[in-house]
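Aim 2, interim progress: modelling of the magnesium ion-bound target.
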Amino acid sequence: MFNISRLNKYIIIIIFLSFSLSACRREEVSETKILFNTYCSITVWASQRGGEEAIRSAFERMGEVESKFNIHSETSPLYRFNREGGDIEDDEIANVVKEALEIAGKSKGAFDPSVYPLLEVWGIYGEGSGIPEEKQIEKALKKVGYDNISIENGRVYSAVEGLGIDLGGIAKGYAVDEGIKELKRAGIDSALIDAGGDIYALGSKNGREWRIGLQNPRGEGNMSVFKVSDRAVVTSGDYHRYFEEGGDRYHHIIDPQTGYPSEEVVSATVIGPKAMTADGWATAVMVMGVREGLEAIKEMEEYEVFMITSEGEAVSSQGLDKYVADMNLDLLHKLDE
Ligand code: AMP
Ligand code: MG
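Predicted structure of the complex, ligand included:
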């Protein structure tokens, strides 16, 4: 009969336990890819194998969102819509358009998904071809108006010829939300997705809130550090895509009222529960400016905003304090110089 002494039994149990512990020991697993024309990184705290698999499925899902919302890709329903009109029959696009229209309404058109013709004349889709002629801007402005976009039973359409939809101000946030959903589905409870400034921090990192640095919009270093858990931190800025002419900066966020790039705010960070909503509002606040931006975010329950103005001032909504781990005011003064 097979007989193990008591000591041997203990040794076997200890070896077994340490094997199973090491198999599910949590460590930081991270991967970076290029998505939405920018670096996108996913970090999870999990077992090595489980973490890698979860990251793979999150990237796969985010890649699907990227292709579907890429207005330059022939396979995107938006590509065809922007060239030929007609309908978009896609529940997912309809949902994002619905959110975009809601933000458009609340921001009084500062955020406008029909800004496409303006982005075209400003060369935002190419290399940034220089300042367009006044006439071109006026012509494009006539085609802009989110009121002309309709949604009915998951169908997006417009009665206005020449209307184009660009969801670039909100789709990345949506992709981050979808990536997080995929990670949760894989059993992950601690993760950070950063898609070029569109961030979501899931759970905590070793029992502490995640720390998220906000890049100095005019140079090196972090302007501030936020501490968050289960929150999106999304930043829009005039330093992501721009060209300079005559000493002025022309960037990729266009004020649909003037037809020119927004001014006053150089960086807007929105913190809240959903990355898609935070993304749309960060773009909206860039256009709205300090006063109107603060007013609008006050109405958004659970959302806070932090702005840096072209004068080098830091402005924040009342509830932002709880997220601030560090604020580098010295850098703000330098920005002003
Ligand atoms: P974000 O980096 O989220 O602020 O998004 C910037 C992108 O949003 C631009 O590259 C355009 O595709 C799009 N966009 C620019 N201006 C506006 C606007 N006023 N409303 C909505 N989307 C805009
Ligand atoms: Mg945005």
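The CA atoms of residues 176 and 260 lie 29 Å apart. The mean pLDDT is 91.
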